[in-house]
Specification:
The structure holds 2 protein chains of 2 kinds. Chain A is mainly α. Helix content of chain A is 63%, strand content 0%. Chain A contains 17 helices and no strands. In chain A, α2 packs antiparallel against α3, α7 runs parallel beside α10 and α11 packs parallel to α14. Chain A is globular. Chain A starts with 5 loop residues before the first helix and ends with a helix. By secondary structure, chain B is an alpha+beta fold. In chain B, β3 and β4 form a beta hairpin. In chain B, α1 runs antiparallel to α2. The radius of gyration of chain B is 27 Å and the shape is elongated. The termini of chain B are far apart. The complex binds protoporphyrin IX containing FE and copper (II) ion. Copper (II) ion binds next to α7 of chain A.
């Protein structure tokens, strides 16, 4: 089980230069997975800021019942682009970025399997994203049909304008999809073939397991979205009738193709977040990850089951009863491996020695809020209940508990956790904690109110609403603005600490995992020499193995 | 703390949790609008049941986390091990098996309640008038329209609802007799819409070119709002209609007095298109123009030929 053809596979790497700490490399076509990882992360963070601004405009409109901030076409464009950007230009590519940075380090490889392909995958993202956002400046604006782009709504475009928001939307999402597929090929190959000697599957960190599972989903399910979008483009621009209901087409087929990807996409986004929890929680509770094997296998289990649940987005789409019942059961079964993960995290923390630094706060906060996201998910799988709340704010609340309160929190945990490794400097703890508390409070204020609103029947995507819904909407909007503010200490901390932060040691958290055995930041080839792995992962509890440096090392000043 | 005390504490905590989560489940009834159909009560009891289970899980695990944060803190700079336990097979099997049984049970409850919603039996719901029919199981073509006391046509288009009653009266309001099964034949003109009355706990997409049927039995006299739950373009937010549930006498009285309303009557989308509200930011981006004539009659004859049939009732 020992493969180390890294020397053969990773041929396209440029020769090592001494420009390791040269900021210019981040603007270059580098094939170093670490540089590419940082490029991804910084780029997608900028998109996150843009998506967040759009969200705040949406919340500004919704603070009062009347339509008085943006006109209705603009509102529709705002939520369309907000959703699209957050999913396709923030979480999914950010995960690609952090995985890029970490996976080779964690499995003891010198680089990804196909470094050139890796660089190309990244360089497709900025132009596709800019293309998408540039559609705001078209005379008739961006796509307005939601990030689902359901036909026939999405086919209603300004006559005589071949380049329109919807067209641009499809082209950019297809391009981003191609980038993801190239990335997925690279990740799967890397994890299968580039592991260091001794790095067996059951010595891989759970983060690597979850990246593997997520990227397998990309390979299996993404082609379905691409197909749907290309057919949609034909309908839109070339007069075909695949999805046109009045001309023998079937719009429901689009929904099947779309959700066949877009449900698993939720796990493509969430699995790496679960992986992050599995790294951070043990490190800051000084325990082995409880039930490591079950958690590792649960990642694959989640990926597998989530392929078979897409119809739960279509319970009210003229879906026959037998399908409703079948997909109710499969949807509920996803909660089994997911539950295994949640129990494992809690058991890891139990009877431990907790250190509540910023990464741990974000990880515990994210894991706790995931419980509400997950429980509301099981509720939604129950068909009779879903028939009531489908397409209401209950859904919006549920998935934001997942995409923001869980995944985005996990991303912040990851950024703080690996910041010393990536930059070689420590971030400022006080600012980190401030960021955590603002985010945690803001996130709950923003997204909790959406659950009662949905139960009471407030429909999603409406630009004006019945005054009786105003109370909770005010809370949600104020929470949303607080979330906007919460990002400021984060940016200040990151920029300031990159430039002036204390120098970090190689392993400031005394964590296990190969990435902590090399220097901070790691050299071009990651390891002075390829490590040979002889220990189980997460061996925090085993005094025979644990690397404990003298405590004052942690505090060392430079 | 001795092991024994810890177990006692956990047992006590679980007991408290059971009580509290049951209580939260009972509160859940108040989080939703009034129940205006018999089915609404069933959906609400399912929701209450799910809320109790969910609260138990959330409070249980969050409680463990909070307890840990309070009592399992490491002394500063102590990076030694917490404890060396890597897993516990029995515990892991337990916490895989329990949720499996639990969700199967929940799914079973969901199935039961779904059946009681009186939605047509499994497999009968879609009737395709297409070549597929040849392969369809025999019972699919034997299906009979469900008996109903009244049949009302519901027309929906961008951006307006209208209703046609048995005596050919058309109106912008949906009137339903209480406690009587009423069949709604749903027709959409150009894009998808979704029929949604929160008090009915009921939602159904309406697909142009398909004939979709919904049988409702309202149980509570009153006035409600019909909404479009599926985004349908620029004036989506204006897609509301009044629903009146009345005694059968009032209903037939209304029917006999009602006059067909003129087509363009109070179509809010048209009004807004003519005179857009003042907003801080104006994009003037493209929108489909709402039509004046309110009733989408043209949708019916044109699409009958290959209309597909979908029936639901609650
Ligand atoms: C700053 C925090 C955020 C706020 C205040 C916010 C708010 C909103 C609001 C008000 C909507 C509109 C719902 C509708 O009308 O359909 C929405 C939709 C959405 N948001 Fe967010 N959001 C935030 C963060 C995020 C994040 C981090 C993601 C990451 C994936 C995200 C993904 C989505 C998606 C996918 C939609 C659905 C859009 C649609 O259905 O067309 N949001 N959000
Ligand atoms: Cu889903």
């Amino acid at each position: 089980m020992i493969h180390n053809p890294s020397e053969n596979l990773a041929q396209n790497r440029e020769p090592e230069t001494d420009s390791e700490n040269n900021w210019r490399q981040y603007f270059s076509f580098s094939t170093d997975h670490k540089v590419i990882g940082v490029q991804y992360m910084v780029t997608t963070f900028i998109f996150f800021l843009i998506g967040g601004l759009l969200a705040m405009l949406i919340r500004a409109e919704l603070i009062t019942p009347a339509s008085n901030v943006v006109d209705r076409p603009l509102y529709n464009g705002l939520f369309t682009l907000h959703g699209t950007i957050m999913i396709f230009l923030w979480i999914i590519p950010f995960n690609a970025g952090i995985s890029n940075y970490l996976v080779p380090l964690m499995i003891g490889a010198r680089d990804m399997a196909f470094p050139l392909l890796n660089a190309i995958s990244f360089w497709m993202i900025p132009p596709s994203g800019l293309l998408l956002i540039s559609s705001f400046f078209l005379p008739n604006g961006t796509a307005q049909s939601g990030w689902w782009s359901y036909p026939p709504i999405s086919l209603q475009i300004p006559p005589g304008q071949p380049i329109n928001g919807e067209f641009i939307w499809i082209v950019s999402i297809v391009l981003i999809g191609i980038s993801s597929i190239m990335g997925a090929v690279n990740f799967v190959t890397t994890i299968f073939w580039m592991r260091a000697p001794g790095m067996t599957f059951f010595r891989m960190p759970v983060f690597v397991w979850s990246v593997l599972s997520a990227q397998l989903l990309q390979l299996i399910n993404l082609p379905s979205l691409t197909a749907a979008l290309i057919l949609l483009l034909f309908d839109l621009s070339f007069g075909t009738q695949f999805f046109k209901p009045l001309e023998n087409g079937d719009p429901i087929i689009y929904q099947h193709l779309f959700w066949f990807y877009s449900h698993p996409a939720v796990y493509i986004m969430a699995l790496p977040a679960f992986g992050i929890f599995a790294e951070v929680l043990p490190a800051f509770s000084r325990n082995p990850l409880f039930g490591y094997r079950s958690l590792a296998v649960a990642s694959l289990g989640i990926a597998f089951v989530s392929i078979f649940v897409w119809v739960h987005h279509m319970f009210t789409s003229a879906t026959p009863s037998w399908m409703r019942m079948l997909f109710m059961v499969t949807s509920m079964l996803v909660s089994v491996p997911t539950g295994v993960k949640a129990f494992g995290w809690t058991a890891t923390i139990w009877r431990s020695k907790l250190h509540l630094e910023t990464p741990m706060l974000f990880a515990m906060g994210g894991a706790a809020m995931f419980l509400l996201g997950g429980v509301t998910g099981v509720m939604l799988a129950a068909v009779p209940f879903d028939i009531h709340v489908h397409n209401t704010y209950f859904i919006v609340g549920h998935f934001h508990y997942i995409v923001f309160n869980t995944i985005t929190m996990a991303i912040f945990a990851a950024i703080y956790f690996w910041f010393p490794k990536i930059t070689g400097r420590m971030y400022a703890e006080g600012w980190g904690k401030l960021h955590f508390w603002l985010t945690f409070i803001g996130a709950n204020l923003t997204f909790f109110p959406m659950l009662p609103l949905g139960l009471q029947g407030m429909v999603r995507r409406i630009s004006s609403y019945d005054p009786r819904y105003q109370g909770w909407n005010i809370v949600a909007s104020l929470g949303g603005f607080l979330l906007g503010v919460s990002i400021l200490p984060f940016i200040a901390n990151m920029v300031g600490s990159c430039l002036y932060g204390q120098k970090a040691s190689d392993n400031p958290w005394f964590a296990t995992g190969l990435e902590w055995t090399t220097t901070s930041p790691p050299p071009r080839d990651n390891f002075a020499e390829i490590p040979v792995v002889k220990r189980p992962p997460y061996d925090y509890g085993d005094p025979k193995y644990s690397v404990i440096e003298p405590p004052d090392y942690h505090q060392q000043e430079h | 703390m001795p092991r024994f005390l810890e177990y006692l504490l956990i047992a006590g905590y679980i007991a408290v949790l059971l009580v509290v989560s049951h209580w939260i489940g009972q509160c859940a009834y108040n989080w939703m609008p009034v129940e205006a159909t018999a089915e609404a009560q069933k959906v609400d009891s399912l929701f209450s049941f799910l809320t109790s289970i969910g609260s138990f899980i959330i409070l249980g695990l969050v409680g463990m986390m909070v307890y840990s944060v309070l009592f399992f803190r490491a002394p500063k700079n102590d990076y030694s091990e917490g404890h060396p336990s890597r897993g516990d097979i029995k515990l892991e099997i337990l916490w895989t098996a329990t949720p499996t049984l639990l969700v199967l049970w929940i799914a079973f409850q969901g199935f039961n309640i779904y059946q009681q919603l009186n939605i047509l039996g499994l497999g009968q719901i879609v009737h395709l008038h297409t070549p597929l029919e040849l392969e369809a199981p025999a019972y699919a073509s034997e299906e009979q329209p469900k008996p109903a006391a009244e049949t009302i046509d519901v027309f929906v288009k961008q951006w307006d609802w209208s209703f046609r009653y048995p005596n050919n009266v058309t109106s912008k309001e949906l009137h339903l007799p209480v406690n009587l099964r009423t069949r709604l034949n749903l027709h959409a003109k150009e894009v998808l819409h979704s029929f949604y009355v929160p008090e009915f706990r009921l939602q159904q997409y309406i697909v142009p070119g398909r004939e979709i049927e919904l049988v409702v039995t309202p149980t509570r006299i009153g006035q409600y709002k019909l909404k479009d739950a599926l985004f349908s373009g620029t004036y989506f937010a204006l897609m509301e209609a009044n629903v009146h549930i009345e005694s059968p006498q009032q209903y037939s009285q209304w029917l006999s007095q009602a006059q067909s309303e003129s087509a363009s009557m109070e179509n809010q989308a048209v009004a807004e298109y003519m005179q857009p509200p003042r907003t801080m930011l104006k994009s003037n981006w493209y929108t489909v123009v709402p039509e004046q004539s309110a009733i989408a009659r043209s949708a019916t004859p044109k699409t009958n030929a290959n209309e597909r049939k979908v029936m639901n009732d609650t």
